[in-house]
Design brief:
Elements (H helix, E strand, L loop, with lengths): L8 H11 L7 E11 L2 E4 L3 E9 L8 E7 L5 E8 L7 H4 L10 E6 L4 E7 L13 E10 L8 E7 L18 E6 L2 E10 L1 E6 L17 H12 L1 H4 L11 H7 L21 H11 L7
Parallel strand pairs: 1-11, 2-12
Antiparallel strand pairs: 1-3, 3-8, 4-7, 4-9, 4-10, 5-8, 6-7, 9-12, 10-11
Length: 293
């Protein structure tokens, strides 16, 4: 990833001091922050959405978080990046050295090389304006290439932003994600664990009715997955973080019971999306209370 200029004022000052300033060596804070990208499934030519989330954010907070997400630009392109709820710390309006209260969250999309850079940083020393909680850091919306083949997977890899490790001439390139804060003139860095995401190119066909997990049969595990996708959407819903999360095809298979008020097909054959009614209908089928789904 090429070096990007995405910050001004205090944002630039903080970023330089934490990323390239050699005035004091970094010290380990002894804590680990997790950065995760969710997964999604979309047909060729259609849009997808994934969340970039933080977890295990230390109580001391994060003053700067600087990293990127890399992808194959022949398979997907990024259309937009929206700041997540955890970045709304009030720092943008509170930092008097900022540029007209400029947002402390910045992003830069580079579809030519297949990367998007993401940054949160503030010059404020008051940690109440830093990242302090787990949650969605940003939401990325993109489009699958119209030529992408069915079942092709485009990885979403969390990477360091490529820039000089110090401000000295000939310095080596940065090879780690910047995540930490300044304690006086000492840079305090957290360890970072990354969990990459992916975008899978979906097909047009639906499979066996009731087969939510697409294993070729209808059983209680399909009922369980439907209920998990409803109760824990971020983990088990379409594009969820879990490897066994519901897919577009699985959701189409599972949509077996319709709501007469909203069904797009016969009320008893689904068409209204996933609900507890679908789980109930599959259970009825397994108990042989109904002859078919």
């Amino acid at each position: 990833m090429k070096t990007k200029k995405v910050v001004v004022g205090a944002i630039a000052a903080t970023m330089l001091s934490l990323s390239v300033c050699p005035i004091a060596p970094a010290v380990a804070a002894g804590e680990t922050v997790q950065i995760s990208v969710s997964s999604a499934e979309a047909k060729a030519g259609e849009q997808f959405t994934v969340n970039v989330s933080l977890s295990d954010v230390p109580s001391a907070g994060i003053q700067i978080l600087d990293f990127g997400v890399a992808y194959d630009p022949t398979l997907i392109t990024i259309d937009s990046v929206t700041a997540g709820e955890v970045t709304d710390t009030g720092a943008g309006s509170a930092d008097p050295t900022g540029s007209n209260g400029a947002s402390v969250f910045q992003s830069s999309i580079h579809n030519d090389e297949g990367s998007v850079s993401l940054l949160f940083t503030t010059g404020l020393e008051d940690s109440s304006y830093w990242l302090k909680k787990d949650g969605v850091f940003c939401t990325i919306t993109g489009t699958v290439a119209s030529t992408a083949a069915e079942n092709t997977v485009a990885d979403l890899k969390i990477i360091p932003v490529d820039r000089a490790a110090t401000d000295q001439a000939g310095a080596s390139q940065n090879d780690s994600i910047s995540c930490g804060y300044f304690n006086g003139t000492t840079k305090v860095s957290y360890e970072v664990k990354t969990n990459d995401g992916k975008v899978t190119v979906a097909g047009d066909k639906t499979g066996l009715r009731g087969d939510a997990d697409r294993n070729g049969s209808v059983a209680m595990n399909d009922v369980v997955l439907i209920m998990q996708s409803i109760s824990n959407k971020d983990k088990y819903g379409i594009g969820g973080a879990d490897d066994n999360a519901l897919t577009l095809e699985g959701a189409a298979n599972a949509d077996v019971a319709g709501d007469p008020a909203g069904a797009t097909t016969k009320a008893d054959k689904g068409g209204d999306g996933i609900s507890v009614n679908d789980a109930l209908r599959i259970q009825q089928f397994l108990l042989e209370l109904i002859p078919e789904l």
